[in-house]
Amino acid sequence: MSLIHSLHVSFVVFLLGLVGIYLNRKNIILVLMSIELMLLGINLNLLSFSVSLDDLLGQVFALFILTVAAAESAIGLAILVIYFRLRGTIDIEFIRLMKG
Amino acid sequence: MNLFLAAFAALGISSSIMVIRANNPVYSVLYLILVFVNVSGILILQGLDFFAMIFLVVYVGAIAVLFLFVVMMLNIKVEEKQESMLRYLPVGGGIGLIFFLEVVIGLDKEFVPLNLLSLGPSYESEILPEYLHWGETLAQKTGIEAIGQVIYTYYFYYFFMASFILLVAMIGAILLTLHNDPKVKRQEVFEQNAREFSRTIQKAS
Amino acid sequence: MSYFLGVLLKILGLVVPLLLGIAFMVLAERKVMGSIQRRKGPNVVGVFGILQPIADGLKLMVKETVLPSNANLMIFLAAPVLTFMLALISWSVIPFGDGLVLCDLNIGVLYLFAVSSLGVYGVIMAGWSSNSKYAFLGALRSTAQMVSYEVSLGLILISTLIFAGSLNFTEIVESQKEVWFAVPLFPLFIMFFISCLAETNRAPFDLPEAEAELVAGYNVEYSSMAFALFFLGEYGNMILMCTFCSIMFLGGWLPLPILSSFDFMPPGFWLGLKAAFFLFGFIWVRASFPRYRYDQLMRLGWKVFLPLSLAWVFFVSGLMIGNDWLP
After folding, report:
1. CB A41 within 8 A of CB A17
2. Which of A79, A92, B187, C11 is packed most tightly, with the most Cβ within 10 A?
3. How many helices (H) and strands (E) in chain B?
């Protein structure tokens, strides 16, 4: 198991998350999912380096990123749900109109 | 073992492409789950069994279920998304390509010396000095024990921070979505249990 | 080559008795429920109806698989396979004796927990892809219930893991040589059993398949072998949870102290005995208790079990650290 391979995987996953945000600007749930993908890529990167360099710090921070990802998705989805309840849509085209 | 790695990586990357390109959000979430599972496979190959399981429990068991719930409950219509794709493609694609090339070239240039196995055993002594594998000489510990010993001592501030972030997220999510409809009747169990029979029914006159 | 053959034989040796066990578990459930409700139960096919599960299985096999025209076929067909597969792969870490385990994983408990958290997806995929209101409502109920009770299940497990000091099933059983964890952690034991009932969608928490309201829950649209896979998966999960319970709290394969003259019995016998005890409890509970209402179920999970199990984590860890008992 070499470092390079898993680094490539993590980088491609990160990049796909980035592209996903760019491509799916209209669908905010897909944007949230793309953020999850990016966080996953970062996590895989940290873990691979942690294994390769024999340093536990990477694993510890991967754990923290995991909690942040969980918190982020929970809050984001809660905001989405309440927005849907208020407006009946979660289209970004309408969310950017700050009125009411 | 490399075969497994190739399989996990290929499946993971192709399903993460499907996450952003699927035309139904439910498919996206299911592909997202597939990505998580494949990444846990890669982690198992690296010997990080604890993290692989934690990824499964947290990402797949909690986060993806949330996504699936929201996507299914909100019932978002499938919308056309092909139209605006070409508009920003030149600029976005150009920047993306630069980023991609930068990292890929950087990865292969910078980290090759660290990657001893890919060069074969003969190069090992030329590039890097012989160094001791401390992991083999020290006492064996499982991954969880090692993380626990670090996380509860040196990094306990960060641990507190993480727990506070989770607490804030929990309170925030509950506060945001809890919505008290006065029309809904709720059961007050303690009130029910505390009610005395002799006081509830009274004889008229 | 012979290595793979050996692994394959081991897997078969685990799966085939499991499937047989599931079949006869169904028969036992019908018989026991019959006795409790003062009727005979199945008694036509074979002696005392012993061949009934075979007949049922044969009937399900030869029926036609009906595919609803509005269903999302890929997911519709993947869901039962996923459920059944997840019910089978979790057995790979269960030890039936000292060393009698397919894969003595270092983090066996975590593995089992992860696999059981994956089990939600079979249900929700089935409910969503059927494109039917009953199935979808049943799947949503079932998912919410399983996710809620998984939290309390995990917290209860943490308390026992603090006692055992390991996530390996074999070491957990070995650490119960002095005393079974059911004795010092009796309230947790009861809570774990109830959470297992809710986690496997059994009565009195069988809201997902409440016959009166939802016909059959998430698997209304399934027929023949697809339904059979769900059924097998569900009962396999039930047996798995009972075995898990007996490993975590009743000392796994350790023999009963009061029956010391039976010590010559193989370790798997004791594990089976304890699991059968819990399975009988499952059936008994099903025959005796009325179904919970959904808000009562959620209240029990989030407002009773979660705080209680969290408090127990604090109590147990405080006790262990204060007395320097940590293993």
Report:
1. yes
2. A79
3. 12, 0
Query: Using an 8 Å Cβ cutoff, are C31 and C49 in contact?
Result: yes
- Copy the structure tokens of residue C195: 């959470």
Question: A55, exposed or middle or buried, with CB in 10 Å at 0-12, 13-18, 19+?
Answer: exposed
ipTM of the complex: 0.89
Number of neighbouring beta carbons within 10 Å of residue C273: 17
In chain C, which residue's Cα lies nearest the Cα of B145?
C166
| Distance between CA atoms of residues C49 and C232, nearest Å | 20
Instruction: Look up tokens 């594990």; give the residue.
Output: C271
Surface-to-core class of residue A4, CB atoms within 10 Å of its CB (0-12 exposed, 13-18 middle, 19+ buried): middle
Task: Using a cut of 0.80, tell me whether the model's pTM lies above it.
Answer: yes
Closest partner CB to A11 (pick from B32, B103, B117): B103
CB of A92 within 8 Å of any CB in chain B? no
Question: Mean per-residue pLDDT for C130-138?
Answer: 83
**Whether A7 contacts A34, CB under 8 Å:** no
Report the C-alpha gap between C236 and C135 in whole angstroms: 21
Q: Which of B70, B119, B166 to mutate to test the interface with A (most CBs of A within 10 A)?
A: B70
The listed CATH number (3.40.50.2000, 3.30.1490.190, 1.20.120.1200, 1.10.4160.10) that belongs to domain B1-79: 1.20.120.1200
Q: Spell out the domain ranges in chain B.
A: 1-79, 142-177
| Among the partner residues C106, C114, C136, nearest to B56 by beta-carbon distance | C114
Which tens digit of pLDDT belongs to each residue from A48-96?
888 888 788 888 888 899 999 999 988 988 888 888 888 777 777 666 6
Q: Rounded distance, CA B76 to CA B19, Å?
A: 16
What is the C-alpha to C-alpha distance for residues C169 and C95, in angstroms, rounded to an integer? 7
Q: What digits encode the pLDDT tens for the residues B117-171? A: 555 555 544 555 555 566 555 566 667 888 888 888 888 888 898 899 999 998 9
Distance CA C234, CA C192 (A): 18
Residue A25: exposed, middle, or buried by beta-carbon count in 10 A (0-12, 13-18, 19+)?
Answer: middle
DSSP C292: P
Cβ–Cβ gap B165/A71 under 8 Å = yes
Q: Is B51 an interface residue toward C (CB < 8 Å)?
A: no
Per-residue tokens: C205: 């928490």
Q: Which residues of B touch A24 (CB under 8 A)?
A: 20, 81
**Are B and A close enough to touch, i.e. 3+ CB pairs under 8 angstroms?**
yes
Tens digits of per-residue pLDDT, C173-202? Answer: 888 888 888 888 899 999 999 999 988 888
Nearest-CA distance from A89 to chain B in Å?
Answer: 8
A3-95: CATH topology is: Helix Hairpins (1.10.287)
Residues in Cβ contact with C54 at an 8 Å cutoff, skipping those fewer than 6 apart: C23, C45
Query: What distance in Å separates residue A28's CA from the closest CA in chain B?
Result: 10
